[in-house]
Amino acid sequence: MISRYSRPAMAALWTEEAKLDLWLEIEVSACEGMAAIGVIPKKDAAIIRKKARYRIEEVRKNEERTHHDVLAFLEEVAVHVGPAGRWIHQGLTSSDLLDTTIAVQCVRAADILLADLKELRTVVAKKAKKYQLTPMIGRSHGIHAEPVTYGLKLALMYEEFGRSIDRLVEARKQIAVGKLSGAVGTHAHLDPRVETHVCKKLGLKAANISTQIIQRDRHAHFMSTLALIASSIDRWATEFRHLQRTEVLEVEEYFSPGQKGSSAMPHKRNPIIGERLSGLARVIRGNAIAAMENVPLWHERDISHSSAERVILPDSTVLLDYMLAKLIGLVDKQIVYPENMQRNLDITRGLYFSQSVLLALTDHGMARRTAYEVVQRNAMACWRGEGKPFLNYLLEDAEVLKLIKPAEIKKICSLDRHFRHVKGTFKKCGL
Fold this sequence. Notes:
- Helix content is 65%, strand content 5%.
- It is mainly alpha-helical.
- The chain has two domains: 8-136 and 143-253 and 269-342, Up-down Bundle (Fumarase C, Chain A, domain 2), CATH 1.20.200.10; 348-425, Orthogonal Bundle (Ribonucleotide Reductase Protein R1, domain 1).
- The strands form three sheets. It has a two-stranded antiparallel sheet. Strands 3-4 form a two-stranded parallel ribbon. The protein has a two-stranded antiparallel sheet with strand order 5-6.
- Helix 6 (94-130) packs antiparallel against helix 7 (150-175) and helix 9 runs parallel beside helix 11 (304-333).
């Protein structure tokens, strides 16, 4: 299922032709594997390799009659091969084709997504370094807390998507497993060496053991990994959307010439990419639930997982590829407003130094509870005041001055201590 969000490389993996091409390669390679161990004549395997092909329109016609996609395909291939075609699908079952093909598709999709993630980190790293020491207010519960830098915020993003790469590499390993073990996985009618031959040729590992299918915990792991990556995208899309709110406006999505924000209000410049990413992340998370529901199947196999996978695997890989591309563009072209970051820092007139003062008072011997009450008293006065900086309240407080000299108070109320470890943090993140 190819959506309007498809990009060419990812979309190409999930076309009907791509699937049937893999089916054909598996069948032909299996015949070559059988010939290599003397199960079928080598000349027949050579004929199969030379003549095996299909016409997709004929496969579709056959399926209208058979209501079975694999048999429809096999009938069409046999037309082209002739007598040697009797060896095609020898000892195999439909899931040998289906599951081995899915494995190849997921591996190739993972490779595209890994390239996307690496490109994203490159763009984020460049922006993080540019704004490494650009001060802005940090927020907890949505309320002003202590200062951070925009570079630190982006370094956190860089680190998070590094973990995404690690998870996807592992998920790729888990999904890169094929099987040609027959109707219940016992290799009753096909030597395991043929399975090994085909899987190796496709860049897969042959399953140590299977039923009629590859067990679906592997697919659930893969889908859960995609959902985690989508959730990280959602997390940053949400962050940027908050930072674009009119009363904040510290960063903004690029707004192209001629772009419109609202059908009713010509002034609007909305964070539409971020909102789209948040919405699509919900789809991928939902698909991961479907993948988990596919894990419990009846005995050696039922078919309940198949219909869901025809939707969730292509849709999730296509969507995530699209989402990563959009996030790359969002970060790369994002407009940053350092002056607004400074404006917002100044809103509380230095209240964000409250912890620094609290710790200084305790360092000078004041009980923590008393120090907290002293600092809070001045902070609340500053909140209710009419523009006087927090520092001024501290410089007029006898309890504070009894322990700390004015010059030291001014030094405490400085951004320097907040940013002294920024470069070290960047280094630990590999930036």
